[in-house]
């Protein structure tokens, strides 16, 4: 709760990372705040790599970084900087845009349920996802969000989500339903299906007569195996009987 931001989990993670940076990237800070040190160290490496990539490509981030270094706390910065970051996140995760259904938990029309609103992804509005209790947005229930991942246990949960404005993704959302599947696959849908099926042609569904015939054949095979097993057992019994008779005669 200490590092939760009303803007969502991505900004909350950024606040946590910056506080860790101010503490000298120490392991003790992670232990005191119940944060996985190895995960934070990996985040540090990823951030360093991203800064190097952006530097090599000469992207115009100097102004943002300069403001970043001069500011004492992300939560105290101008709202425009945070909104810029959120807009970038929204455009990166636009395929995971979701709209709130109702206000409170279970899609109700009140906040009495204590958070955990229900959301329907714009990619498939038939699906209902619940905001995870561990999210910074669990009690805030914004109307529009983008999320980085969803988990399915006994219920379907959204995790790592950020509050956004619909205008940021309005022009991108039609791509969810108008995408060119053949362009994405790099081949025709017929060729893709052939690759998926391993070059085998799809079989037509069996008729009732065919199913009955197969069952009769299986029953016949089972009877044949039982008959063969019985014949083998009888032959073995006769052999043992003859052997015992010979031994008795010798005695």
Automatic annotation (TrEMBL):
Domain DEAD-box helicase OB fold: 86-175
Keywords carried by this UniProt record: ATP-binding, Helicase, Hydrolase, Nucleotide-binding
Region ranges (Disordered): 195-235
Pfam families on file: OB_NTP_bind (PF07717)
Matching InterPro entries: DEAD-box_helicase_OB_fold (IPR011709)
Biased amino acid composition, Basic and acidic residues: 205-220
MF annotations from Gene Ontology: ATP binding; helicase activity; hydrolase activity; RNA binding
Source organism superkingdom: Eukaryota
PANTHER family membership: ATP-DEPENDENT RNA HELICASE, ATP-DEPENDENT RNA HELICASE DHX37-RELATED
Protein name, entry field: DEAD-box helicase OB fold domain-containing protein
Organism: Bigelowiella natans
Biological classification of the source: Eukaryota, Sar, Rhizaria, Cercozoa, Chlorarachniophyceae
């Amino acid at each position: 709760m200490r590092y939760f931001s009303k803007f969502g989990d991505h900004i909350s993670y950024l606040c946590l990372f910056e506080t860790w940076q101010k503490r000298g990237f120490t392991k003790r800070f992670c232990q005191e705040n119940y944060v996985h040190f190895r995960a934070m160290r990996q985040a540090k490496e990823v951030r360093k790599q991203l800064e190097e990539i952006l530097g090599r490509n000469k992207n115009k981030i100097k102004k943002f970084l300069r403001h970043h270094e001069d500011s004492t706390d992300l939560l105290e910065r101008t709202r425009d900087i945070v909104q810029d970051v959120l807009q970038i996140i929204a455009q990166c995760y636009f395929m995971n845009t979701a709209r709130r259904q109702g206000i409170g938990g279970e899609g109700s029309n009140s906040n009495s349920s204590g958070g955990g609103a229900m959301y329907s992804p714009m990619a498939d509005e038939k699906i209902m996802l619940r905001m995870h209790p561990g999210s910074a947005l669990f009690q805030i229930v914004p109307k529009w969000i983008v999320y980085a991942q969803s988990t399915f246990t006994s219920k379907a949960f959204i995790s790592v989500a950020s509050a956004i404005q619909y205008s940021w993704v309005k022009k991108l959302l039609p791509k969810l339903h108008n995408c060119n599947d053949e362009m994405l696959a790099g081949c025709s849908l017929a060729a893709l299906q052939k690759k998926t099926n391993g070059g085998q042609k799809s079989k037509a569904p069996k008729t009732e007569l065919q199913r009955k015939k197969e069952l009769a054949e299986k029953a016949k095979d089972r009877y044949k195996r039982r008959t063969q097993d019985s014949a083998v057992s009888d032959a073995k019994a006769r052999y043992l009987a003859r052997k015992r008779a010979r031994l008795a005669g010798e005695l």
